[in-house]
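Apologies for my clumsy wording, but could you write out the amino acids of a protein and the tokens describing how it folds?
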Amino acid sequence: MLPRELELLIKIAASDGVITPAEKEDLLKKAASLGVDIDEVEKVLATYEKSTNETESPLQTLQNQLKELAQQQSTALLTIVNKEERRKCEYAFIEEKSSLIDSFILPETEKELREAYKYFLKQETLAKEGRYRNEWRQKSLECFAELLELLEDNLDACLALISDAKEKGNEEFITKTPRARQILKAEREKAKQEFQAARIEFLFKGWRRILAIVTIAISTPVGIYLKFYNEKEEVIMLPILFCAVIFMFLFMNCISSLDSMEENIYKKHNLSKKDMDNNK
């Protein structure tokens, strides 16, 4: 039976899904200071190690490696007083961390790939050093491109991923990913063709309605003029101006309706106003 204090420390160490070698060493030291049987502690820790290693994903492996590296750096810096030596030590750990990030192999399943993508985006935001930000961003870009390839047969999922990248200000991912550019180009062409067909139908139906309204608008004032004002020639301008105002109103309404129709069609295809402008 382990002491309550040691059990609590073990649970804390295993809360992130794994007990690293550095954490294991600290726990064994604590067990020794408490006078606990080391073999018993080893058996308990082995149980945690077995359960975590069996389910460890590539992302979890990277997270554990970075966590252990940070612990090693903290321990190493505690023993170094000389500023120059500290600087060299810090630089060595920076190189090691960069190497771990660069060597990360992207997972093959969609779920793990999405988790890695979110993690890299978050780390890019949190990174203090510009170098790390660039490396996290590069890995985010690689995940984005790999996800689009993996979702090749799921167009809606691809468009949702592209739309999410736009909303988060990562349009660079789209411009640097051939698959994303290809998808957007195809969707713009579909939207353009759909709008052209809808515009023709709208104008055909709309102009018939406009013609009927204009006919009424002309005949009404002209009829009034002929009946009541046929002796005053200057009044002939009144029906003309009235018709011109009616026609201008109908024309502007038509333009507004077409713009709204185009915007709705592009939204249906997950395209933005910028995409609309680029397609004109």
About this structure: Residues 151 and 212 are 51 Å apart (CA to CA). The mean pLDDT is 79.
